[in-house]
Write a structure and sequence with these properties.
mainly beta; 9 strands
C-alpha cells in the first residue's frame, strides 16, 4: 500500500516524543529490514506491534534540522535535534495525511537507556539516522 506521510515521530526511551513535519520539497527516505509483527489479544482489545530486528535507516535533508519539535519537553534547554542525538530512540511513528499511523519499534542494543545500535550523523547535506543490530557478517553488505 502507498501512504502519504506528513509527520514522523521519534519516541524516546523516557517517553519524550520528537516530531518532524515532512515537506514535499525536502528529501526523505527510509528503509526497515526484518520487520516482524506480533499480535496480542487481551479481553476485548487486539494489539499489533511491528518491530525491526536487524537494520533501519532514515535519510533526511539537513534543512529538516530546524524543524524537529519536542512535543513534551523534558530536554533541559536542548534543541530538539540535539535531544534526538542522545541516541535513545525506541520507535518511529509514521503519520499519514489521512489520519493513519504506523509505528515500528527499532533495533535496540545495550541494557541501559542509550541505544548503542543508534547512530545519528550529518554529512553532505543529509541527516542519517541508523539502527544496526545485524551480525558482523551481514554488516559486510552495504545497504546505505
Amino acid at each position: 500500500m502507498n501512504y502519504i506521510i506528513n509527520k514522523i515521530e521519534f519516541v524516546l526511551e523516557n517517553c519524550e516524543v520528537i516530531e518532524l513535519t515532512i515537506w514535499r520539497n525536502f528529501l526523505f527516505h527510509s528503509r526497515f529490514n526484518d520487520v516482524r509483527t506480533s499480535i496480542d489479544a487481551q479481553e476485548e482489545q487486539l494489539f499489533e506491534n511491528r518491530s525491526c530486528y536487524e537494520y533501519a535507516v532514515l535519510s533526511l535533508d539537513s534543512r529538516y534540522k530546524e524543524n524537529f519539535k519536542i512535543t513534551n519537553d523534558g530536554s533541559s534547554g536542548k534543541t530538539a535535534f540535539e535531544r534526538l542525538q542522545y541516541g535513545d530512540i525506541t520507535s518511529v511513528v509514521f503519520k499519514t495525511a489521512y489520519g493513519g499511523e504506523h509505528q515500528i519499534y527499532v533495533p535496540w542494543k545495550g541494557n541501559g537507556t542509550i541505544n548503542k545500535a543508534c547512530k545519528i550523523t550529518e554529512k553532505d547535506g543529509k541527516i542519517l539516522i541508523k539502527f544496526d543490530c545485524r551480525p558482523w557478517w551481514k554488516k559486510l553488505i552495504k545497504w546505505w
